[in-house]
Amino acid sequence: MSSSKPDPGALQRQAHAWWVRLHSGQATRADADAFRQWATLSAAHAQAWREVMRVWSALDPLLAEEAARQAARAPLFSWPGVSEALRSPGRRAFMGGAVAATVAAGVLAVDPPLGLWPSVGELAADYRTATGEQRQVALGEDVSVRMNTQTLINRIGTGANLRGMELLAGEAEIAAAGNADFFVETGGGRLLARGARFNVRHTGPQVCVTCLDGRVLVSVGGEQRSVEAGRQVVYDRAGIQDVVRADVVSVSTWRTGVLSFDRTPLAEVIDEINRYRPGKVILRNESLGRTLVRMQLSLRSIDNALVMIRELYGAKVRSLPGGIVLLS
Fold this sequence. Notes:
The structure is a single chain. With 328 residues, the protein is of the alpha+beta class. It has three domains: 8-124, no CATH class; 128-251, Sandwich (Jelly Rolls); 257-327, Phage tail protein beta-alpha-beta fold (3-Layer(bab) Sandwich), CATH 3.55.50. The chain contains twelve helices and 19 strands. The chain has helices at 8-22, 29-39, 43-57, 61-72, 79-86, 92-95, 103-107, 120-124, 248-251, 266-276, 286-289, 304-313, and strands at 127-128, 135-138, 143-147, 152-156, 164-176, 182-186, 189-193, 196-202, 207-213, 215-220, 223-228, 231-236, 239-240, 244-245, 258-265, 280-283, 292-298, 317-320, 324-327. The strands form three sheets. Strands 1, 2, 3, 4, 5, 6, 7, 8, 9, 10, 11, 12, 13 and 14 form a 14-stranded mixed β-sheet that branches. The longest helix has 15 residues, at 8-22.
């Protein structure tokens, strides 16, 4: 084995993908030969494989079934489509050769089981934040973007021709100063701002736009709404709702490192915790998921939420390797 030390994160992604490929029922003799070659490249490769085996062998059988179901969808994967995405300016170098070099990475690049490693969409974005990470990005001289956890952004235009951005997923607070228009495309809509500060959340089928200062013009499917400071609007690909008064403090709590819930169904609380916590918390009790929750959480100690849920709401907590937690 070689003594070289490749990137541990890349090796983990490759090892996870190899595991699912070899357990998918689609593996060929050529795959087996390629895997043996990969696993013996270095001690680091072998260690990555041992760690993945430890994680997956400890998974609950139902979770293993979910991974197998995703693996069964592997024939739907289109590697030429990914290759085309990687040819976009500024993305190919970021991806590097590691993903493209392995058959296994392609198998589940689009839909990683349980979200245990980044998808191609995440890796191909111009800017991305990992789980629990926040980041400040300057887009030109007059535009500043604060990215929340699990957020993906692409630039639209470059240099002096930078005109806007695409929010692929996640949440961001955008401050667009100066006299030039700046637009944000997300979820099938377009936001146009000049001299404004606004928060955009796109973590599901709906997009929520909250204006904090100035004014934002929101356009969706031929309809428009003017959103002024202290107001917000929600839309999806089916249309746009009416503008309403916003709870600005609640919208901005993520900037302060605190999550606050007031009579929120536990299932929604778990979804939010999963945005900030590595691994995956899986709720396996629908009745418990409907329980209305009041709590305040610090993002610096997000795992305390699981202790609180157990103590306050009687949930059973089972921890598995890889940051996976089962609540029932």
